[in-house]
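Figure 3 (text version): C-alpha cells given as input.
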C-alpha cells in the first residue's frame, strides 16, 4: 500500500481533530478526500506528510512509518499545499533545480526534467523570471512541476485546481491520471466536487474527524440512497450540516488547546496567590 493510516487519532488538547482514522490508498489509485471546513482534512494531510505526529495509531507511506522512518517516507512522497510557496528571489528554473538537488537528482537529469515539464505545463516562457513576479496560477503550475520533478511514488495535493485557468486545470488533471496510470498514487483533498467525481478512483468523506463514507461514486450513491451527482451524495451523507467551525481544524484545535493552557495557568497563579 502507498498510504496507510491505522486508527490514527490526533488531539490538540481537548479537541479531537481526527479520530481513529483508518484508510488505504493503493498503487495506481487516485483517492479524493472530501469534507467541510473543520472536518479534519488538513490535519489528515499533515499526518500523512509527517508535519504532525499522531496522538495514537500509525501512519505509513510506501511501508515506511512517517516518523520512525521519516527520511525514506519523504523520499517517496511529494506534497502540494493549497497555497503555493516559492522563493521570491529565485527564478522558476532555479527553484526547480533546488528542489531536484534536495531529492538527490543528478544535475543533468534534473535540468532535463525541468525543461521537459516546463514545456509541458506552459511555464517555459517565464521560467527564468523571478518568482515574485508570478501570478497565482503561474506559481501553482511551477509548484506542481517541482512536485513531480523526481517522479514520486505518492503525491499529496490540497485543492489542486485553485487559481488555475481551464487549460492549466486540464493539464493538471491529465498529469494526475498519467501518474496513477504509471502505478503512482495520488491523495487529493478538494472542495471542487465535480473534479473529484471526474478523476477519482475512490472517494473518502470525513465529518468531524471521522471517516463516514468511502468508495467509488457508485458505491457512495448506494450509501447515500441517491442517484444524483457527487454534490448530492456528499450533502446527503453529511446531512448537509456544517462542522463545528469554518476555522481550519488545525488552527481551531491549537487555539482551543492554547486557551485551555492559559486558563490552567491563570488558575494556578490564583492558587499560588491564595497560598
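Below: residues designed for each position.
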Amino acid at each position: 500500500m502507498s498510504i496507510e493510516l491505522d486508527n490514527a487519532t490526533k488531539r490538540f488538547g481537548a479537541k479531537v481533530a481526527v479520530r481513529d482514522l483508518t484508510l488505504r490508498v493503493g498503487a495506481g489509485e487516485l483517492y479524493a478526500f472530501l469534507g467541510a471546513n473543520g472536518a479534519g482534512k488538513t490535519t489528515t494531510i499533515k499526518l500523512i506528510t509527517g508535519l504532525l505526529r499522531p496522538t495514537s495509531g500509525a501512519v505509513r507511506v510506501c511501508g515506511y512509518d512517517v516518523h520512525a522512518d521519516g527520511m525514506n517516507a519523504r523520499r517517496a512522497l511529494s506534497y502540494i499545499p493549497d497555497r503555493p510557496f516559492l522563493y521570491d528571489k529565485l527564478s522558476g528554473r532555479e527553484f526547480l533545480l533546488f528542489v531536484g538537488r534536495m531529492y538527490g537528482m543528478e544535475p543533468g537529469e534534473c535540468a532535463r526534467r525541468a525543461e521537459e515539464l516546463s514545456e509541458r505545463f506552459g511555464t517555459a516562457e517565464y521560467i527564468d523570471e523571478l518568482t515574485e513576479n508570478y501570478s497565482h496560477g503561474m506559481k501553482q503550475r511551477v509548484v506542481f512541476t517541482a512536485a513531480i520533478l523526481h517522479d514520486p511514488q505518492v503525491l499529496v495535493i490540497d485543492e489542486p485546481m485553485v487559481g488555475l485557468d481551464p487549460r492549466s486545470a486540464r493539464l493538471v488533471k491529465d498529469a494526475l491520471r498519467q501518474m496513477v496510470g504509471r502505478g503512482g498514487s495520488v491523495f487529493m483533498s478538494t472542495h471542487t466536487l465535480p473534479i473529484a467525481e471526474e478523476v477519482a478512483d475512490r472517494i473518502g468523506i470525513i465529518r468531524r474527524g471521522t471517516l463516514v463514507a468511502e468508495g467509488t461514486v457508485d458505491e457512495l450513491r448506494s450509501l447515500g440512497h441517491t442517484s444524483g451527482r457527487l454534490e448530492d451524495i456528499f450533502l446527503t451523507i453529511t446531512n448537509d450540516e456544517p462542522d463545528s467551525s469554518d476555522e481550519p481544524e488545525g488552527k481551531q484545535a491549537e487555539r482551543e488547546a492554547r486557551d485551555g493552557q492559559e486558563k490552567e495557568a491563570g488558575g494556578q497563579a490564583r492558587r499560588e496567590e491564595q497560598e
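The radius of gyration is 20 Å.
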